[in-house]
Amino acid sequence: MKVILNQDIPNLGEIGDIKDVAPGYARNYLLPRKLVMVYNDKTAALFEKRQAEILAIKEQKRLASRSLKEKLEADVLTISMPAGYNGKLYGAVTNHSIADELLKKGIEVEQRRIEIPGRSIKSVGNYKVLIKLYEKDEAVLRVSVEGQVIASEAKKEEGGEQKKHKPRRQRVETEPATPEEQAAAFEEAVNRGKL
Question: Which of 59, 75, 85, 95 could disulfide-link to 111, CB 3.0 to 4.6 Å?
């Protein structure tokens, strides 16, 4: 079924695009939400009138994409994560964690647009991450992953601190108590309030 998009739809297209979609997808999802219009001469003429508006929207997106690219490439994003002395992270830096760090800086990027080599970063170091922007624009974000040494790791490295063992109790061989001694010990414990 041929449709014209009323607005940008992820993984489908932008406003004003003419697309072929499955009839069920159009009837059950796109048309009830007014995301698209069925393509015919009437709707094509309507979008011809809106062509200047659509082109202005696309140009605005291009400009926003360029300024975002400049922001992303101008700075190094530093992420600090727990790591061992060998440089391996306890966990991994993913596109989700990069999107969160960028959001803290006031830059909003969809995590699905962030491409990390190898899908995640698992050790300390400097990396280049590709971020897909509008149309074919791409930004290369420099990411520096720093390791936070955990206290237990620091102790191991500093002095090779060994585990402190409790001193072993030595077994003392005694003769078994007589019934009279047991009764006296019980009575004494009751008087002291321990039983």
Answer: 95
